[in-house]
Design goal:
Order of helices and strands: HHHHHHHH
Strand content: under 5%
Structural class: mainly alpha
Distance between the termini: 55 Å
Largest sheet: none
Number of helices: 8
Length: 187
């Protein structure tokens, strides 16, 4: 190797760069209340933008689109407290509520898509004749478990009523909801 390449290579692995190799230091933090200057700046901003209908209208549209109060304020270059002060108005409060519903819908759709992909992956493994038999069995068990068809813990089979739906979206929604309930009971 040339000397240039040798200079670029590290002498030993850099263990300082790997966070898993570092001890965990917990530093206690406390929330410091807003100082007098910061409170004065917040109040001045609220007063300055209180009579700005254009800014309030843009904030309302962002909130309706699903932005949080904090992210809408950040996009507009305002403090969150200014946007929160507008939430006393019915139009802004309605925008916050509808934006939260929109975020829930978007997140729900994302979870449904992820569940569909996960189910597809499990089906691929269960149907792959080249896969190890134990992997195929595990994938099949996972599919049955998510559908609610599982044996009891003591080895006896459980009597499970299975409803067959024609509508895939309903089945997928139940699978996602069942996974959420199972995750909550495990914690």
């Amino acid at each position: 190797m040339s000397d240039d390449v040798q200079d670029e290579l590290p002498d030993a692995p850099n263990v300082d760069a790997a966070p898993a190799n570092q001890p965990l230091h917990i530093v206690p933090t406390s929330v410091v209340p807003a100082g007098e200057q910061e409170v004065a700046a917040m109040l001045a901003e609220q007063a300055r933008f209180n009579d700005e209908p254009e800014m309030k209208a843009v904030a309302t549209r962002l909130l309706e689109a699903g932005y949080t109060v904090h992210s809408a304020a950040r996009r507009l270059g305002l403090r969150s407290s200014t946007v929160w002060s507008w939430s006393k108005e019915p139009a802004v409060a309605a925008a916050i509520t509808s934006g939260a519903a929109r975020r829930r819908t978007v997140l729900g759709q994302g979870l449904e898509e992820a569940a569909e992909q996960a189910l597809g992956t499990l089906l691929e493994v269960a149907n792959d004749v080249g896969a190890q038999p134990r992997d195929r069995v595990k994938a099949s068990e996972a599919i049955l478990d998510r559908c609610g068809i599982t044996p009891t813990a003591n080895g006896q089979s459980a009597a499970v009523g299975v409803t067959i739906d024609v509508d895939f979206d309903e089945r997928l929604a139940r699978i996602v909801a069942g996974a959420g309930v199972k995750a909550e009971t495990e914690t």
